[in-house]
Structures are given as C-alpha cells and as structure tokens.
Amino acid sequence: MKIGKYSMGVGDRFNHQAKAQLKAIMHAKVKGIDIIPVWNKSFREHEIIHSNPKDTRLQADAAVKSLGWEADYFVDADHVNLKTVDVFIDSCDFFTLDVADYIGLEVNENELEKFCSNNSQFIGELELQELSVKLVITEEIIREIGKKYLFAVKEASKIYQRILGSKGDNNFVVEVSMDETDSPQTPIELFFILSAIAEEGIPVQTIAPKFSGRFNKGVDYVGDVDKFKNEFELDLAVIKRAIEMFQLSDNLKLSVHSGSDKFSIYGVINKAIKKFDAGLHLKTAGTTWLEELIGLAAAGDDGLSIAKEIYRTAFSRYDELCGPYKTVIDIEMEKLPNPDEVDNWDSEKYANSLRHDQSNSNYNLHFRQLLHVGYKVASEMNEDYLNMLQKHEKIVSDNVELNIYERHIKNIFF
Predict the structure, then answer these.
(1) What is the pTM of this model?
(2) Could you tell me the residue range of the domain that residue 392 belongs to?
(3) What is the mean pLDDT of residues 230-256?
C-alpha cells in the first residue's frame, strides 16, 4: 500500500466536515493537482470529543461514497504510541508513530555499537548533489546520533510490529514523527535516523522531523524563513540520498506537522518540492474546527450566540484548555478581548477577528489560538453544538472548503 506524491491530513474534530474537505481536494484534482486526503485525529482529540476512530472512518467513507471519489484516501491514527495504538488498528490504514518522547533515552550498548558499525562506511563526506553540499561525518557524530535517536527508532519498530501483527503486511502506511520535541533534527541526524529506520525494517513513507522556528497551532510560522528554507531543502536532499542508500520506499517524503496556516513558509515549500520533484504530506487539524466557528458567527443570530458562548467559557478556563498545548501556542493574555466586549461584536467583527487573514485589522492571533484549543467547550455542549452545525451547514461547509482550497492547497501545491 502506497500513498501518493502529495497528501494532506484533514483533521475534523467533530466529524462533520469530511465532504467539505473532500470537495476542496476534488477541486484541486479538476485543476490538475492530485492530493490524497488523510483524515487524521489523535487519541487526545478522541478522548476530549468522546469519539472513536470508527467514527472518523465512517465519516470519511460516507464522504467518499457521496461525492464519488475514486482515488485513494486514508484514515490516520495520529500520534500513536504503544499505549494508544490498539484502539486505532481496526479503523485506520495510516499510522503516525510518535516517538518524540523517547529521544535521548539510553540505548543498549550492543545495539549502539551495531548502529555505529553499520554506518561507519559514511565517515568522511556525504555529498548532496542537488545542492552541491557535502556533509562532514565523523565517528563521533554517528555515535552521538545513535545515543540520541536509536532508542526512539527502536520504539517506532515496536509500534510498527504491533500494527503489522494485526493488519498484515502492505495494508497500511507508516509515518514516523519526531516533531514534538525541544530541538530540531539536523540533516545529518535525519540521514542516520532513516538509516536506523531502514535497519529496523520499518517501511516508512513519510517522516515528520522538527524544524527550526515555532509551529504553533493554527497560526503563522514564527522564525527565520531563510533558515527554514535551508533546512527544508537539505532534508529533501537527504531523503533523496537515503532512499538510494538504504533501499527505502521511493515515495518517502517529508511531513510538515502543525503545517496548517504557516503561510509565510508556504512559498518556500512550494518552490522546494518542485525543485526536488519531491512529495509532501501537510498535516492540518484544528483549522477545520475554527472555520466551523467562523461559519457559525457569520450565520448570525443563534450561530453567533453560540460562538460567543464558546469564547466566554474558553476564556474562563484558560489554564485548563491551554495546558495540554502549552508547547505549541503563544498567547498573550492582555491581548485577548474580554468576553463582555466580544458579546457586543456583530458577525463580521467576530469572524474577522478569528479568520486567519493577516491583512484584516481585526485579526487577533491570540483570540484564534485560544479558540483553537477550546474545542473541548463545544464538545461539552453535545447536541447543542452539533445541531447548530447542521442548521447552518451551508455557510459552515462553504467556509471549510474555501479555507482548505484557497489558503492552503493553492499556495502549497500549485
């Protein structure tokens, strides 16, 4: 089972926007760009929403059938580990193996020695022909990389073997994720991480490293764009070389996590994947939920009222809601509007404050980030929120479709 060159993780907190998401991808196909949709939802999100992977599968299948989508599509067990993977196995055919927490843990000395011996052939210079760059590799560098990452790769192997034992060979796609950690992986580290993955026999098709800069949830990239460009291109060149050296899948590609709304680096990514004729997996998630809120606010009346209620509750529960996401949000409390102020906003003011249009003077990235992590509030409303989505389905789904196609797909893939 192989995933296509371009793929997009389309998260959907409440399992209501699969058709709208697929319509955006179908629109791209009409324009000549083939993108594989991957509906992703993490264990944490399922817990908060009180949903399960079967719900995600049913929604994806229903959207595909309803719209007559004939190409591939997948359902992703997003950021799973050995403790959480089992609940996803029956419903998913794409597995994001998250081993960031295992980076730096002490590895068995014999395994480390084997890793160093297997890779000693690379001591010297590794040429990346596409960039006319040579990476200098020493025995010490290989050993330090083994110490830092080998335990994590061994953990990925355990998760993969668990899935393989249930689903069988060639029945799912594997991604290895190391992005939710403190420091980015260097291109040399990525090369030897891929060496270790190949040695473990993990048929990885996408790899999600951590890049420099801040990849906060639902807002633009914060960092040095030129530095990101250099890292991204080096990683693409490393992957190309690793495929040759380690007999990895020829469709192996980079995965950009929390990639939604990173508008300032979309142009860099677009040019790089064309320059290297490389694939890409762009993982989005919570922006669909935000587009639902924007649609409800734009609907006015009861839609606007529930949007305001959600913000007021999220504001009062700031610490609780932001705690699990503290590494991927940067909110300045003094720049959050008071709920009493928001209660006086009209539809346009609320929607423009939340919509990610940095040219609009009303846009407030702090307001947006708090609501991004505030989906738990809507979940607790149960049918009140879901019924509102159904009542205002047209304006909500149009908003979701336009956001994915106009702001993301067109800027990344065209």
Answers:
(1) 0.96
(2) 288-406
(3) 97
